[in-house]
Amino acid sequence: MRAVTYHGTGDFRVDTHPDPGIEHPRDAVIRVTSTAICGSDLHMFDGFIPEMRKGDIIGHEFMGIVEDVGPDAAANGDLKKGDRILIPFTIACGSCLWCRNEEYSLCDESNRDAEKLATLNGQASAGLFGYSHLYGGYDGGQAEYVRVPFADTTHMKVPDGMSDEQVLFLTDIFPTGWQAAVNAEVGSGDTVAIWGAGPVGLFALKSCLLLGADRVFVIDDVPERLALAAQHGGIPIDRSQIKPYDALMDATQGRLPGKVIDAVGLEAHGAGVIDTVHDRVKTATMQMTDRAHALREAILCCSKGGIVSLPGVYAGIVDKFPIGAAFGKALTFRMGQTHVLQHTDVLLDHIREGRIDPTFLITHRGRLADAPDLYETFRDKKDDCIKVVLTP
Ligand SMILES: NC(=O)c1ccc[n+]([C@@H]2O[C@H](COP(=O)([O-])OP(=O)(O)OC[C@H]3O[C@@H](n4cnc5c(N)ncnc54)[C@H](O)[C@@H]3O)[C@@H](O)[C@H]2O)c1
Ligand SMILES: [Zn+2]
Ligand SMILES: [Zn+2]
User: Fold this and answer.
1) Residue 167: CB within 6 Å of ligand 1?
2) Ligand 1 centroid to 70 CA: how many Å?
3) What's the rounded Cα separation, in Å, for the pair 215 and 198?
4) What residues does 138 pair with on adjacent strands?
5) Which is the closest atom of ligand 1 to the Cα of 90?
6) Ligand number, closest to the Cα atom of 95
7) What ranges make up the beta strands (E) of 90-176?
């Protein structure tokens, strides 16, 4: 089969690999019908995720049709050949303490690299598709076929009559934006500020509005992304024109938003901003792993007693973390990989009942063979690219 394959930083190719098969009674193999490129894939493309190996298959937003199914996945997960299913990017055993609590991204059983990750983080979290040998080293979904481990508890059936594009983002970015809003306890009448108008920031915006927020500011410097945010009910702040802090102070008469969401993560940029220059030097010289400009600014811009929610990925350590501001304003922090299946039923209802059309941000479609070019297009925001969907 053909699959998007890691060869090094900035070097993803479409290679031929052996077709996957059933390796465990709880496995299924699916034929991928649609898969998307995520901002999290860019962290590997840009060399921020350690423990990647040449030959690894990338991709964690995908869906398809069951080709083959192990006996336990068939019996316990009601799965059979021909079923059309979505695969959450977080692999869930379904029975550990965390899975029973619907905190699937913390699963104790699905990460084959648990020991390695635990030496870094103190404890390991769930295995993820196509996300390095710290997260299980599982082959990803930007491929013609994928083996799905723990398939009985790591899938969701697609209701009849729904297109791939209507439901594909339930595998990651829609629940991720939603969890960001839920973690920020967004509710009726709230004022929220979101850093990043990428796919995750845009779904966080839609989620905040679905949860009843009154005003949602969206901060970025990419004009077409800000324009899309405005078209979908957000109040854009172009950080190349005005300091987000000044804009937010002004718009809230000095109160500042009580809920702030960092949907940027570890690759924040900010030309000419002194802490960003330090971050670039320190990450380039391996003295630090993550660039945290958006996070620092979000903390500064959060009102006293507020909540800072981080869907944006952080992978290692940062410095100049304004702990004094966070402490002084008594802020609460919530973060983590998304517990995808915890949210999918409610989000599927929002789609079915027409409260959201998740296709609103798709700008580019291609075949697997186009993936290397489309990675560059997406990363460099060429051709007004916001979200890429591939059909193998
Ligand atoms: N928690 C999870 O489970 C989960 C799931 C999916 C994605 N993510 C993460 O969410 C983040 C966003 O993903 P995406 O797909 O939207 O990526 P993206 O790269 O398309 O979007 C990031 C956006 O942030 C903007 N940006 C960069 N620096 C900024 C700054 N200083 N201030 C404001 N905006 C800035 C960029 O211009 C871009 O539009 C990534 O870190 C990704 O890894 C997390
Ligand atoms: Zn993702
Ligand atoms: Zn589990």
Assistant:
1) no
2) 36
3) 19
4) 129
5) 3
6) 3
7) 145-148, 156-157
Tell me the H-state helices in the chain: 39-45, 71-77, 97-100, 114-121, 164-167, 173-183, 199-210, 223-231, 244-251, 274-284, 293-301, 323-328, 340-352, 371-379
Structural domains of the chain ordered from first start: 2-171+338-391 (3.90.180.10), 174-335 (3.40.50.720)
Q: Which residue has the tokens 């993820």?
A: 128
Nearest to residue 39, comparing CAs of 199, 175, 227?
A: 199
* Predicted TM-score (pTM) of this structure: 0.96
Which ligand is closest in space to the CA of residue 264?
A: 1
Beta strands 145-148; 28-37: pairing state: antiparallel
Gyration radius of the chain's alpha carbons: 20
Atom of ligand 1 nearest to the CA of 197: 39
How would you write the pLDDT of the chain (392 residues) with one tens digit per residue? Answer: 999 999 999 999 999 999 999 999 999 999 999 999 999 999 999 998 999 999 999 999 999 999 999 999 999 999 999 999 999 999 999 999 999 999 999 999 999 999 999 999 999 999 999 999 999 999 999 999 999 999 999 999 999 999 999 999 999 999 999 999 999 999 999 999 999 999 999 999 999 999 999 999 999 999 999 999 999 999 999 999 999 999 999 999 999 999 999 999 988 876 556 677 777 777 777 776 667 899 999 999 999 999 999 999 998 888 889 999 999 999 999 999 999 999 999 999 999 999 999 999 999 999 999 999 999 999 999 999 999 999 99
Pocket mutation for ligand 1, best pick of 218, 313, 381 (most atoms within 8 Å of C-beta): 313
